[in-house]
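PROTOCOL LOG
Step 1. Enter all chains and additional molecules of the complex.
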Amino acid sequence: MANIREIAEKAGVSIATVSRYLNGTERVSKESGSKIQREIDRVGYVPNALAKAIFTKKSEVIALMIPNIVNPFFNQLATVIEELCHEKGYTLMLCNTEDNKEKEAKYIDVLKAHRVAGIIASRPKCKEQYLNCNIPVVSFENKIGDSIVSVSSDNYDGGRIAFEHLYEKGCRKILHIKGPDTFDATEQRYAGFSDAARERDMEVDVVNFKTDFNLKMLSEDLNNLDCKIEDYDGVFVFNDIAAAVIIKYLKANNVDIPKDVKIIGFDDSFISELINVSLTTIRQPIEELGEALARILLDEIEGKEVPKDDIMIKTEIIERETTLV
Amino acid sequence: MANIREIAEKAGVSIATVSRYLNGTERVSKESGSKIQREIDRVGYVPNALAKAIFTKKSEVIALMIPNIVNPFFNQLATVIEELCHEKGYTLMLCNTEDNKEKEAKYIDVLKAHRVAGIIASRPKCKEQYLNCNIPVVSFENKIGDSIVSVSSDNYDGGRIAFEHLYEKGCRKILHIKGPDTFDATEQRYAGFSDAARERDMEVDVVNFKTDFNLKMLSEDLNNLDCKIEDYDGVFVFNDIAAAVIIKYLKANNVDIPKDVKIIGFDDSFISELINVSLTTIRQPIEELGEALARILLDEIEGKEVPKDDIMIKTEIIERETTLV
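Step 2. Run joint prediction.
Step 3. Record the structure below.
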């Protein structure tokens, strides 16, 4: 593939002239223009978004950082965002950070270098880098800083709803399985859940999982618990996929769900419907979340005034078989 | 963010001089160099992979086209490929084509413009564009052309294995649910399945699904069938996620699996383990597929001689509860 320098050399003009010609915003003499075009036609020079991005400072790529591509929740969110970006003429690239700070940092460098139009940062870890990257950024869940809008579900309230549901279903020995410390949302789910328990004068046990998506690691987490899940009559799990792993474990141990143990997940990703027994879960409004993230970022890219208030969207409970009595 | 033109203006040199300086491959006078560097330091110009990519014709981005980000199989494949690319210093960007030719074409344009180092095209539709894009390409499943290596599972043999398994388990009224016409692999799975049936002097019924991943559409496909799945004693479904939808439907209709109906999926994605009843399936060797795709592409990018023979990797059956008698 020919590059801009070769075109300039062959056409006998400067690189700056070629770039002006490609960019189309400044005058290039008719003679130079036709020489350049002849060379472009001859070598099959492609429409050069890359060169254009350098000179206009913009590309038409929006990047979505996702912490784990195997978690259906993020895939459904990505699908919503992709459609909205596509409608507006932007191409969405997905970057799978695997909740790894080093990988996320490398992605940011690459995205900066490629002058992407904007970044949607899910559960961001590299806060300083986002603040200094000079690219419009919106965050999902973890807050980056005052200048960057964050969008999330109301995780605290979701935790409260989960406790109330188990309590109303008669559970009195309740366990919460909390997600890894890397994401703020799991803290908020826990806070809402335990506050609601305290108001009922109840104590809940809490155990930590180290991972939120890797099935092998989830099974290891499950084997390393210092409590027996089957000793509880109600379990609130921080996400649907971990809840599915726990349901599988309980079924293998002949525990009757929901009779002996009732279970609630979080997300309402498609997995909650697909598994048998189907999972009661706290629905994150994936459509609304995706729309808010895409809309705010696109507005920022287009230079519109964007209020810097964070957006929090209500969750709701979706009752299915795991708590059906 | 400052651009190369502003740097050139402020430093009082030409854009070509700035690009030579950034590129580092050609001589720039010491005086110009220090003027440029001063401006770069002053405005915080970022290491410019974009400018570099124009002049060296390379970036360190590899793109993976996936037809549907919600299908766990592709997410697991992406995870394997991402790790291998990361080890070699490349960043993997995911492009979710949704099996939509127009979207795929736009992605190719954007990737060309950004001078990505290579593309892994899963189930490609835009064959001409890949053949003419002047970027190393490897394909997964659908064949693009003689010059591009394709990697796939041995889908034909997988179909044969599926039939033999149902037959050995005593099924004599067998249905095959075939995937959409957009991917070649489903044809091969069907061909292997029906050839094996013919050799046993058996007839199998076949119905088509229009989608392979969208849950809402899968349910519609299921409702529009002109046969009743529960009338069969053995069903081979073209992928795991569609099989999970069918299991859910049968359970809702009080069909005993595996006693009344035995089911086999295809992929061995994590969903097959997670659902109850767990799914017997034809395992695609995701690790080996991902490794082959990444290795061939990386070799091509590094200019190594790559044999143009297609690669086909054996499948195997993983027995779980849906056929356990």
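Step 4. Note key features.
Chain B touches chain A through 66 residues (CB under 8 Å).
The mean pLDDT of chain B is 87.
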